[in-house]
Amino acid sequence: MQTLIGKKAPLFQANAVIKGNQIVEGFSLDQYVGKQEVVFFFYPLDFTFVCPTELIAFQDKLAEFEKRNVAVVGCSVDSEYSHFAWLNTERNKGGIKGVTYPLVADLSKTISENFGVLASDYDYDDEGYAISTGAPVAYRGLFLIDKNGVVRHSVINDLPLGRNVDEAIRMVDALQHFEENGEVCPANWTKGKEAMEATAEGVADYLSHN
């Protein structure tokens, strides 16, 4: 697949659950354009094993994203009704009760396909029947989308590999630092550390002090 970096995030309208308990129709990332950056992440399925650890980890750090004026939105191939049930199941029973950011329902799998994270392909057998190759769920994809609706960062993990939420925050900080200061962020940069100008002189100056 071709990368989405530097391109407009694929458009969609879908059902979703917001605030942990409200099912809405026609949810779209367009509502954030011109207002907020978005961390839009995919996970394989509701009521599974690694997934709740990730969704709860994003909720635990939600205040950090909100402090940076960043919206967090999750998505899987489950229906909005499955999302609703999972959101209203206690955590000690495998649920994610207390998660308040939106969860998008991608039952058609078209959103996952358009973002390049669907873990399966479709083909036809010798008799003309459609068959799925691979798992018909989303990989653990994450996309940082700027206020113009452009994808600026993405990472895609295989199904067994949970993500690091702090790294998502670090990438938000790096993008915002660049947009506010025009300085680029070197390897392992974190907020508050020295960045550098995107010139030969700026690189040399940075390296001489580090």
UniProtKB/TrEMBL annotation:
Check the record and name the CDD domains matching this protein.
Answer: PRX_Typ2cys
List the Gene Ontology MF annotations in alphabetical order: thioredoxin peroxidase activity
Kindly list the GO CC terms recorded for this protein.
cytosol
Compartments in which it is found = Cytoplasm
**Thioredoxin domain location:** 3-177
Gene3D superfamilies the UniProt entry points to:
Glutaredoxin
Instruction: Fetch the InterPro entries from UniProt.
Output: AhpC/TSA, Peroxiredoxin, Peroxiredoxin_AhpC-typ, Peroxiredoxin_C, Thioredoxin-like_sf, Thioredoxin_domain
**One of the Pfam families matching this protein, by short name:** AhpC-TSA
Q: List GO BP terms, alphabetically.
A: cell redox homeostasis; cellular response to stress; hydrogen peroxide catabolic process; response to oxidative stress
Q: Where is the active site?
A: 51 (cysteine sulfenic acid (-soh) intermediate)
Q: What keywords tag this UniProt record?
A: Cytoplasm, Disulfide bond, Oxidoreductase, Peroxidase, Redox-active center
Q: Which family does it belong to?
A: Belongs to the peroxiredoxin family. AhpC/Prx1 subfamily.
Q: What exactly does this protein do?
A: Thiol-specific peroxidase that catalyzes the reduction of hydrogen peroxide and organic hydroperoxides to water and alcohols, respectively. Plays a role in cell protection against oxidative stress by detoxifying peroxides.
The name this protein goes by in its record: Thioredoxin peroxidase
**Which organism is this protein's natural source?**
Ancylomarina longa
Q: What is the lineage of its organism?
A: Bacteria, Pseudomonadati, Bacteroidota, Bacteroidia, Marinilabiliales
